[in-house]
Amino acid sequence: MSPQPHTWLSVVGARPNFIKLAPLAWELAHHDDVRHVIVHTGQHYDTAMSDAFFTGLQIPEPDCSLGVGSGTHAAQTAAVMTRFEPVCEEFRPDIVVVYGDVNSTMGAALVATKLGIPVAHVEAGLRSGDRSMPEEINRLVTDRISDVLLAPSRDAVENLEFEGVDADRIHFVGNIMIDSLVRVLADARRFDAASRFGFAERSYIVATLHRPANVDHPETLRKLLDVLGTLSAEHPVIFLVHPRTRERMRAAGLDVPATMQLHDPLPYLETLSLVDSAGLVITDSGGLQEETSYLGIPCITVRGNTERPVTLTVGTNRLVPARRGPILEAARVALRAPRKRPRIELWDGKTAERIVSVLRNYTAMPQKAASRLAFHGI
Ligand code: UD1
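A: This is the predicted complex of the input protein with uridine-diphosphate-N-acetylglucosamine.
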């Protein structure tokens, strides 16, 4: 008789989560004794923000969609929690896996933990030190309550140790987002997005902005669009507009010069292809800081801090405040910089394999049975 399969349940909700889920889903397809249940909270729901990623990355259809949608932080997190609880009761997973730092991550981790289900956090230990960012609160809470902390970088391990986390909860597994990148890079290069947009290799700037600090205040957003407009008179600029940003631009009546290309968010492969041939990326995204570092593309991060300091130490990324002078100067310097591809420890395309091995060991341990008893209320 074949052994009873274990159930591992992944919860995802927003665009960067999908890129982190894909490698684990691919890896688990080779493990017959693990049933991988995928729950999509619906935090992101537009085709460009969600379906395009499931299709492009060949992620299996979610087993369950919670349809949470947009709302205030409290409303969104509460909806994730109330809708996820019965799903845990239905699937009775051996472990719940959460990803990154979005509201869905924290909401799902809270529900599972309170039901006595072990929680594994992929991308544990990142800290910006900036509690005005909702993601920092989500990271702190999720790490505090998760049982298995899967760290992407040495600094993340050190942050957890500094916070007094037991060493046996911390596992340095590397960066799972880089697994996705490694897998699709050859296809992305063949796609050649630069030529499709009519850009010469390394001549253009890819911009994305969506953090509340940059887009929610009309004056800051206007200033940032102005700077991109100025740069677009010197180099082609393509601005991939997040729905949050588009909405803020519309509400404030902001527009951009004709020299700048606005585009809806692109699917993963197209974005990667465009970034891989760019001369510079200007962003406030966490994922792009990492992807540009792996690829050796200069990146300007329009923030005062980053939870991904390794991208600064390897020299590809630079933090620049949301001010005209510093951004223009940093952009002009970066566009002249030679491309150099750094090596970052365990950013090697094999993180999902390491995660599966850690979780297999964890779910085979006797204390897991204790958690299961708690879940069943025994
Ligand atoms: C969320 C994450 C952020 C992550 C980002 C990636 C939190 C707190 N923030 O920010 O960490 O970097 O996702 O994109 O979890 N909207 C749509 N369609 C969609 C999704 C959103 O129109 O598919 C619009 C809605 O107007 C919504 C707004 O974008 O109110 C913001 O969406 P939300 O999920 O609250 O946060 P993000 O800014 O996307």
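Residues 14-16, 43-46, 49, 70, 101-103, 134-135, 210, 242-244, 247 surround uridine-diphosphate-N-acetylglucosamine (CB under 6 Å). DSSP finds 17 helices and 13 strands in the chain.
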